[in-house]
Specification:
There is one protein chain. By secondary structure, this protein is an alpha/beta fold. Among the domains are: about 1-135, Single alpha-helices involved in coiled-coils or other helix-helix interfaces, CATH 1.20.5.4130; about 160-320, P-loop containing nucleotide triphosphate hydrolases (Rossmann fold), CATH 3.40.50.300; about 705-805. Helix content is about 35%, strand content about 15%. The chain has 24 helices and 27 strands. The strands form six sheets. The chain has a 13-stranded parallel β-sheet with strand order 9-10-11-13-15-16-18-20-21-23-25-26-27, with helices on both faces. α24 links the parallel β26 (about 765-770) and β27 (about 795-800). α3 (about 60-90) runs antiparallel to α4 (about 95-125) and α5 (about 160-170) packs across α6 (about 190-200). The radius of gyration is 31 Å and the shape is globular.
Length: about 800
């Protein structure tokens, strides 16, 4: 895709030639006939990128598509040639000046040709006739999908009983004002089936005075305002005398709609809403606000959630995939196979795991496969064909996917396509994904917005469009792991792409033992931006020092005894000008930098006496800090942390036997949102300071303080609390403490008498106990009873892991 190729080329040029206060690794003459202005070249590429964004995809014609392909090929070829010449120059031996001069000349020539080609393509982009209309009436990806039913019968649902009840509750209960309920989920997940079952439920039908339903046509069919309003009015007038009068003139349809709804309790379903204009057109036809106090409801089903549909999170319903058991039940009991009598015969049982895996919980896929297999005699032979076709081509409509893709902005297209590098059905660590997007140059930060925060917003946008799924969330509430549904992988070019080893930018997932066997090849790496190794080894010093564009360096280390580092890493690491994330396991130590590291955002390191030397002055923009603390004299002073003004996450782990002393009064960064303390052995007075941190949302205390009594009066923003303390006996909570607490985890609380009774008045969502004494378990079980007696509903979930421990 042209957008990816251009973004990659522009990122390379920016890193290699346009870094402020950081000269290029290859000298470029700034005078003479061969002079190439890198700023001018970058501007030309930016203009080409803007053209691709505006004209490509659904809005372009054949000529534009052809030009887009030429732009893609140009960008790919240009970057390969530039990097190859750069590599040749950088790898030439220092003494061979003549050879270096030759490669420098070749690079100049290549840059000149790239600039000329970019200018030619830019001229063609201005001349291209873009009046042609794309014909997107492509057939389905797989011939046998042409007549496949898109959704299951409306009265047939598996695994959606809970969803059904929740939507019913949102429609029948709640505010007296008009409310909009949005059902969000990827294509084929069963949104239409769900709302159809609710819409036709007798209790819903009798609850509303009038009901209307509009199914929006597919994206390829376009949007017709008058047709949509006619359809809605027709369903609202069903069963009335008015409907016998025939077609209503277009100009009066909005008026008749408003008249039909005014003064009534109405339910309107907008199914498959992909065009935001349709929502605005509907809203203009609704009665005035003064008439909207009848508990009326509007339900929208969509793959793309927009905040202007509803401003209440309560009215957003996210559809989830079916679990393996639900998937198999739907497969065996659907109306195509008709296996109700004998459920699944042995021949189906043999392919059960394969069917469940390939369908990946998507009802549409399950039904399509079931319909296909219902028409064949040799199940095993036919299944092999089906499996191969689905893995290669998928089952979702290419036209709908293409339309969704074309609606994405340029930066989102690039980020979405990057998911193709990950294996199917694999969970992807968000932290890693964001760093990869960043080093590839896909993220353009807004003013006052960091790269990582902006990348996270990109991910959230893709999730809102149902293109990416949330796998897990962290205790911090952020998305921890995500993945792409396997059905969407069919959208990519499946051909393997060969990348020369010397041109690698990301080196990860490769065992250090393998890299040690190819030391000569490692010396060829000069373009690394992301390096993650399982252990440090000889020769890695050279690789790190050579790759000045390295932004992420992770050394996970071997298992070793805490406080006994095995290797001292070179201070040349701090000389990397682009370094943003440095994560070192407790197996390694490194002396602090002598210079200010403005770019650094993440730091994980072993710290002995470093914390007392004003080191943190040198990391003014650090956001995440993880410190392993040890000292030979077992006395540690932890200060200067308050100078990390942008710090949001702090983790401090102390070796057993060491005593941590905080300055008086103790100081922590005021912007801290997440704090983890392990073995710090703090006093209750120190904890009082932590209580008052104004933005603290997550606190993990793992044998972090001494004393047998803990009296809490603060933690006004805290949402998650983990407490692991083998000595604590009494825990007392004030009336205004923990007003926002949602999740409580207690571990190894052998001596604790009970959970404070006042915790029951907090709207907790979960309490998790692990290896706690019986009295704590008993007090936890009383909390749901208290909530039921006090509020008439239980909203806390109790989880007990491991056996109850008796002190």
């Amino acid at each position: 895709m042209a957008c990816v190729a251009l973004a990659s080329l522009m990122a390379t040029i920016k890193l290699e030639f346009l870094q402020p206060n950081n000269p290029s690794r290859v000298p470029l003459d700034d005078e003479g006939p061969g002079f190439i202005s890198m700023e001018s070249l970058y501007e030309k590429l930016s203009s080409l990128q803007a053209f691709v964004q505006e004209k490509s995809g659904a809005r372009g014609g054949t000529a534009i598509r052809d030009l887009e392909m030429k732009i893609r090929d140009f960008a790919l070829d240009a970057e390969d040639r530039i990097e190859m010449q750069l590599s040749n120059f950088l790898l030439a031996k220092n003494g061979e000046d003549q050879q270096k001069a030759y490669y420098q000349q070749q690079l100049h020539q290549t840059l000149g040709e790239v600039a000329e080609n970019a200018a030619e393509l830019l001229e063609k982009s201005k001349e291209t006739d873009d009046k042609q209309v794309v014909n997107e009436s492509e057939g389905p990806l797989i011939p046998w999908l042409e007549h496949a039913s898109i959704s299951e019968p409306s009265n047939f649902m598996v695994g959606r009983r809970r969803d059904h009840v929740q939507i019913m509750d949102k429609l029948i209960r709640g505010s007296e004002k008009l409310e909009v309920v949005t059902i969000v989920g990827m294509a084929g997940i069963g949104k239409t089936t769900l709302i159809s079952s609710v819409y036709n439920d007798p209790s819903v039908a009798s609850h509303f005075d009038v009901r209307g339903w509009v199914s929006m046509p597919g994206a390829a069919g376009g949007y017709n305002r008058i047709q949509m309003l006619h359809t809605l009015l027709w369903t609202l007038l069903a069963g009335t005398e008015e409907i016998k009068k025939g077609r209503i003139p277009d100009r009066v349809v909005p008026v008749r709609l408003r008249k039909r709804l005014q003064g009534k309790k109405y339910l309107i379903v907008l199914d498959n809403l992909w065009n935001n204009q349709a929502w605005h057109d509907i809203r203009r036809c609704l009665p005035a606000k003064s008439y909207n106090f009848k508990r009326s409801r509007i339900v929208i089903t969509t793959t793309h959630f927009r905040s202007d549909y509803t401003n209440s999170s309560r009215n957003i319903h996210n559809m989830t995939l079916l679990n393996p058991e639900e998937s198999w039940t739907l497969f065996c009991n659907n109306p195509f196979l008709k296996l109700e009598k004998h459920k699944a015969p042995p021949i189906f049982q043999k392919i059960r795991s394969q069917v469940v895996e390939i369908c990946d919980g998507l009802p549409y896929t399950i039904l399509v496969i079931a319909k296909r297999l219902s028409k064949c005699d040799n199940i095993r032979q036919e299944w092999n064909k089906v499996e191969k076709e689905i893995e290669l081509l998928g089952v979702l409509d290419r036209r709908a996917l293409t339309h969704t893709y074309n609606q994405l902005s340029q930066h989102l297209k690039v980020c979405f396509l990057y998911f193709g590098v990950f294996p199917k059905r694999s969970a992807i660590r968000v932290k890693q994904l964001i760093r990869l997007w960043t080093v590839e140059g896909f993220v353009n930060p807004l003013e006052h917005e960091g790269l990582e925060n902006q990348a996270y917003e990109y991910l959230q946008e893709l999730i809102d469009r149902s293109l990416i799924l949330i796998e897990t969330r962290s205790s911090f509430g952020k998305i921890q792991n995500c993945r792409m549904h396997s059905a969407l992988h069919s959208f990519y070019n499946t051909d393997e792409i060969y990348v020369s080893f010397k041109l690698l930018r990301v080196l990860a997932f490769v065992p250090s033992s393998f890299l040690q066997r190819v030391p000569a090849r490692l010396h060829e790496l000069v373009f690394l931006r992301y390096l993650s190794v399982t252990e440090w080894f000889e020769g890695l010093d050279y690789v790190v020092s050579t790759n000045r564009n390295l932004q992420t360096l992770v050394v996970s280390g071997k298992e070793s005894q805490f406080g006994a580092p095995t290797l001292h890493l070179p201070c040349t690491i701090w000389e990397l000008p682009q370094l943003r994330h440095l994560e070192l396991d407790k197996s390694y130590v490194i002396d602090p930098p002598s210079m200010v590291k403005d770019n650094m955002r993440t730091l994980s390191w072993v710290c002995s006496t470093h914390c007392r030397e004003g080191v943190y002055y040198r990391f003014p923009n650090i956001e995440k800090l993880k410190v392993f603390v040890f000292s030979s004299n077992n006395l540690i002073f932890l200060d200067n942390l308050e100078y990390l003004e942008r710090l949001e996450r702090l983790s401090i782990s102390v070796r057993f036997g060491c005593v941590v002393t905080l300055p008086k009064p103790p100081m922590f960064p005021s912007h801290l949102k997440k704090l983890r303390l392990n073995g710090t052995n703090l006093s209750e007075r120190d904890l009082k300071t932590i209580e008052m941190l104004p933005q603290l949302e997550v606190l993990k205390l793992e044998n972090a303080f001494h004393g047998k009594v803990w009296e809490v009066e603060g933690f006004f923003q805290l949402k998650f609390l983990l407490l692991e303390n083998k000595m604590l006996e009494q825990w007392m909570v004030g009336d205004v403490s923990f007003p926002r607490l949602e999740h409580l985890v207690l571990r190894f609380c052998y001596c604790l008498e009970k959970i404070p009774e006042d915790i029951g008045s907090i709207f907790l969502k979960s309490i998790e106990l692990q290896r706690c004494c019986p009295s704590v378990v008993t007090s936890a079980k009383r909390i749901p009873e208290y909530q039921r007696d006090e509020y008439g509903i239980e909203f806390v979930e109790i989880k007990i892991n491991g056996e109850e421990s008796i002190p």
